[in-house]
Amino acid sequence: MFSTYILQSDLDGGYYYGYTEQDVASRLLEHNEGKSPYTKKFRPWKIVWYASFVTKKQAQDFEKYLKTPSGHAFSRKRFL
Prior knowledge:
Elements: E1 2-9, E2 15-20, H1 24-32, E3 45-53, H2 56-66, H3 69-78
Antiparallel strand pairs: 1-2, 1-3
C-alpha cells in the first residue's frame, strides 16, 4: 500500500505533506516519537487527510504536487 498524507501540528497549526509505503498510523507514530528530523520540533501531529494509491509513483507524484503552491491551494480548498 502506498499513501500520501497531510499532518497538522498541534503545536503551531502548520501542515506537513508526506508519502509512505507503510501504514499511515504507524508513520504518524514515528513522526510523534521524533524519528523524523523535520517534524520532530513541531510535535505532536495529527492526521488530517490521507489517500491510498495503487502504485508508488502515483503516491509520490501526488505528494510532490501537494508541496507546490497550487497543490497547497488545492489541498486547503478540498481537504482541510
